[in-house]
Design brief:
alpha+beta; Se/S_carrier-like; DUF3343 domain-containing protein
């Protein structure tokens, strides 16, 4: 399995992407952005596929 990290400029993008991933039945988690990548809204989505 591979894991992908999605970074966002705003929480709106996180919410929209989360809803789309849930509807598609994808495995993911929303978390704080890792310290070395800080920026944007402070949230990211880890997608496992």
């Amino acid at each position: 399995m591979k894991e992908f990290l999605f970074l966002f400029h705003s929480t709106v993008g996180v919410i929209q992407t989360r809803k789309a991933l849930q509807a598609a039945g994808m495995t993911f988690r929303v978390s704080d952005i890792p310290r070395d990548l800080r920026g944007g809204c402070g949230l990211c989505i880890w997608l496992t596929c």
